[in-house]
Amino acid sequence: TSYGFKSVDEGAKQPLVNEVFHKVAGRYDLMNDLMSGGLHRLWKDAMVAFLNPPKRDGWRVLDVAGGTGDIAFRIVDASHGHARATVLDINGSMLAVGRDRAEKKGYADAVDFVEANAEELPFADETFDAYTIAFGIRNVPRIDVALAEAFRVLKPGGRFLCLEFSEVDMPLLDRAYEAWSFNAIPRIGQVVTGESEPYSYLVESIRKFPNQESFAAMIRQAGFDRVTFRNYTGGIAALHSGWKL
Ligand code: SAM
Q1: What residue owns the CA closest to ligand 1's atom 10?
Q2: 3-class DSSP state for residue 54?
Q3: Which domain of life is it from (predicted)?
Q4: Considering the domain boundaries, does residue 46 fall inside one?
Q5: Position 123 pLDDT exceeds 90
Q6: Number of domains in the chain
Q7: Which pLDDT band, with edges at 50, 70 and 90, does 3 fall under?
Q8: pLDDT at residue number 2
Q9: Side-chain half-sphere exposure of 117, counting CA atoms within 13 A
Q10: 141 CA to middle of ligand 1, Å?
Q11: Is residue 222 part of a domain?
Q12: What is the CATH number of the domain that holds 34?
């Protein structure tokens, strides 16, 4: 298959992103482990530890681009089963894997799944206590629109957290990381899913995503206060935090 990724403009990228995730859904969790060497688990654990969900009933989180449920399940765990999580994703195949996992884990009551677009959230204003998005915002065509939606559905005092690949700020690590992304990741994709091109596209999308400071500015622009970020693994990933005050 030729996806013609290199000529894709922002408006046309959503169908391609959807195709990639439809194809990989069944092997998505395995691919994550292989491609990040298991690091994505540590970054996700760190994100949820930073969120520190309260251990009381009535607290609601919306996990956007939540895919197979990794963040939502961790949040429910961290809240000792009190939090209620909504996993929202544009891709029914990813959600189907998530639903299966939720049933197997016995989380069917704590987590629900909604197929929708991050740019158009099907929720009333001020519905959630927290909004999380991990390795998802990079795939959304209009990031400013997604951020405005995040702000809208949060309650006053609500928390925004975004985990995303970012700009590596360590010499040597940046070179090793480039070599890994441009060579190893498409090859692993080829071996595990039979196709490399979707992975070349994903790597390219990481390069195009704004760096830590620029993304923090976009979050402020959407109305959030006290915007900060912290780097993980030398900036391979970064966690951005903001508050709706
Ligand atoms: N958050 C999960 C994790 O960290 O394992 C999944 C991340 S996965 C790399 C990116 C997800 O973003 C995919 O499940 C994809 O379907 C979803 N996605 C892409 N564009 C989206 C959009 N416009 N709205 C909602 N979800 C979207």
Answers
A1: 136
A2: coil
A3: Bacteria
A4: yes
A5: yes
A6: 1
A7: very low
A8: 39
A9: 13
A10: 12
A11: yes
A12: 3.40.50.150
How far is the C-alpha of 145 from the C-alpha of 14, rounded, in Å? 14
Looking at residue 197, its pLDDT comes to 81
What was the ipTM of the complex prediction? 0.99
**For the segment 75-103, what is each residue's pLDDT rounded down to a tens digit?**
999 999 999 999 999 999 999 999 999 99
Q: Residue 43 is part of which domain span?
A: 26-168+209-243
Cα–Cα dist 94/24, whole Å:
8
- How many A from CA of 232 to the centre of ligand 1? 20
Q: Is the per-residue pLDDT at 5 higher than 60?
A: no
Q: What are phi and psi of 4, to 5 degrees?
A: 60, 35
Rounded Cα gap, residues 228 and 39, in angstroms: 22
Paired residues of 120 in beta bridges: 117
d(CA 110, CA 120): 23
Q: Residue 224 above 70 pLDDT?
A: yes
pTM of the model: 0.93
Residue 198 maps to a domain: no
Q: Which of 8, 21, 43, 71 to mutate to test the pocket of ligand 1 (most atoms within 8 A of CB)?
A: 21
The confidence score (pLDDT) of residue 216 equals 98
Q: Is residue 181 part of a domain?
A: no
Beta strands in the chain (DSSP E): 60-64, 84-89, 111-115, 128-134, 154-165, 225-232, 237-243
Q: How far apart are CA 226 and CA 54, in angstroms?
A: 20
Chain centre distance of CA 16: 17
Which residues have a Cβ under 8 Å from the Cβ of 152 and sit 6 or more positions away? 121, 125
What is the SS3 assignment for 62? strand
Q: Whats the size of the chain, residue-wise?
A: 245
